[in-house]
Automatic annotation (TrEMBL):
Keywords for the protein's UniProt record, in alphabetical order: ATP-binding, Isoprene biosynthesis, Kinase, Nucleotide-binding, Transferase
Domain GHMP kinase C-terminal: 215-294
GO MF annotation terms: 4-(cytidine 5'-diphospho)-2-C-methyl-D-erythritol kinase activity
Protein's UniProt name: 4-diphosphocytidyl-2-C-methyl-D-erythritol kinase
Length: 322
C-alpha cells in the first residue's frame, strides 16, 4: 500500500500596521479597522497520512501550545473533514517559530496551514472561497493567514480587502517572556475607556476607520511615511495602551527600540510582542542586536513584510512529521 506523501505548508505571522478598535458591541465583539501585514516569521505545518488525528509541536515555545482538540490546527482539520464527509485522520506536526500568544496570530497561522495541508493530503479540492469560509469560522485572523500580503480587515477583522504595498518594509520583533491573552487585552481596553470617562460601547466610541496616511505609505513603499503613520496620535494600535497597562515592562521595550534608532515602535496586535520599523536590512540587524542586549525582551528578530500567505512547500522540501 502506498501512503500519500506528507504535505508541508509554510505560514507567516502578522503584524497590525493599524488596529483601530470600535466600541464594545452587544455580542461582546468589537468592530475593527485592521491593517494586516504578513511578516517573514513562519510556522510550518505538516500533514501526513494516519489512522486518527494526532498532533505534535516542536520549537522553543512548544510547551505552551495545547495538543488537544482545542488546538486551532486540529480544529481546522476537523472542520474540513466534516464538510467533506471524511474522517479527520491525519498526523499533524507544527514546527513553531511564531511566538505563542504574542499578538502575531500564530495559532491562526497554524489553522490556515493545517487547512491547506489537509486539503492537499486528502484531495478534498476545496475552493479558495470555501477555505476562506472555514478560516472565518475558526477565528478572525485566520483568513488573513491564508492570503498573506497586506489587507484591510473589517468586521471582526475577517472581512478582507487586499491592499497594495509598493515596497519591502524592514521590521524587528521583540519577543517577550510569556504571552498575553487577547480577550484580556480587549477587556483592559474597554476598562481604560470607561475609567477615562469616555465610555466603551459603540455609542461612545467612533467607528474604526483605516488611516488614509497609513494606507498611502504602504502603497508608496515609503518607510518614513509609514513610521509617521504608525506613531500618529501615539500609536496606530488602539490596544497598545491596554497591553502596556497589563504588562508595564513593554514601555521599557518600546523605549529601548526607539533609543536604539527604530523609526517607529508599536505593540503588535494584543502584544506582548513589540514591533519596530527600521530603514533597511542592516539597520534592522543592528536594532535587533541592540534590543537583545538591552535585556528588555527575550529575543529580537528581524523580518521583512509583506510576506506571502500560506504556501505548500515543494515535496522534496517538506519535512516528515514526527
Ligand atoms: P492573535 O494575534 O491572533 O490575537 P496571538 O498571536 O496573540 O493571537 P496565539 O499564538 O494564536 O496568540 O495563541 C493564543 C492562544 O491560542 C494560546 O495561548 C493557545 O492556548 C491557543 N492556541 C490554540 N492553537 C494554537 C496553536 N496552534 N498555536 C498556538 N496557540 C494556540
Amino acid at each position: 500500500m502506498s501512503a500519500a506523501p506528507a504535505v508541508t505548508v509554510r505560514v507567516p505571522a502578522k503584524v497590525n500596521a493599524q488596529l483601530a478598535v470600535g466600541g464594545l458591541r452587544p455580542d461582546g465583539f468589537h468592530d475593527l479597522a485592521n491593517v494586516f501585514l504578513a511578516v517573514g516569521l513562519y510556522d510550518e505545518v505538516t500533514a501526513a497520512p494516519a489512522d486518527e488525528l494526532t498532533l505534535t509541536v516542536s520549537g522553543p515555545d512548544a510547551a505552551q501550545v495545547p495538543l488537544d482538540r482545542g488546538n486551532l490546527a486540529a480544529r481546522a482539520a476537523e472542520a474540513l473533514a466534516a464538510r467533506h464527509g471524511v474522517e479527520p485522520d491525519v498526523r499533524l506536526h507544527i514546527a513553531k517559530d511564531i511566538p505563542v500568544a504574542g499578538g502575531m496570530a500564530g495559532g491562526s497561522a497554524d489553522a490556515a496551514g493545517a487547512l491547506l495541508a489537509c486539503d492537499a493530503l486528502w484531495g478534498t479540492g476545496a475552493s479558495r472561497a470555501e477555505l476562506l469560509g472555514i478560516c472565518a469560522e475558526l477565528g478572525s485572523d485566520v483568513p488573513f493567514s491564508l492570503v498573506g500580503g497586506a489587507a484591510l480587515g473589517r468586521g471582526r477583522g475577517e472581512r478582507l480587502t487586499p491592499l497594495d504595498v509598493g515596497g519591502t518594509f524592514h521590521w524587528v520583533f521583540a519577543v517577550a517572556d510569556g504571552g498575553l491573552s487577547t480577550p484580556a487585552v480587549y477587556r483592559e481596553c474597554d476598562r481604560l475607556r470607561e475609567v477615562s470617562g469616555g465610555g466603551a460601547t459603540t455609542a461612545d466610541v467612533p467607528d474604526p476607520e483605516p488611516s488614509a496616511a497609513l494606507l498611502d505609505a504602504l502603497a508608496a513603499g515609503d518607510t518614513d511615511a509609514l513610521a509617521a503613520a504608525l506613531t500618529a496620535g501615539g500609536s496606530s494600535n488602539d490596544l497598545q495602551a491596554a497591553a502596556v497597562s497589563l504588562r508595564p515592562s513593554l514601555a521599557d521595550t518600546l523605549a529601548a527600540g526607539t533609543g536604539a534608532g527604530a523609526l517607529a515602535a508599536v505593540v503588535s496586535g494584543s502584544g506582548p510582542t513589540c514591533a519596530f520599523l527600521a530603514r533597511d536590512a542592516a539597520s534592522a540587524d543592528a536594532l535587533a542586536t541592540a534590543l537583545t542586549a538591552s535585556g528588555t525582551c527575550r529575543s529580537a528578530r528581524p523580518a521583512t513584510a509583506p510576506a506571502a500567505g500560506a504556501t505548500i512547500l515543494p515535496a522534496e522540501r517538506g519535512v516528515t512529521a514526527h
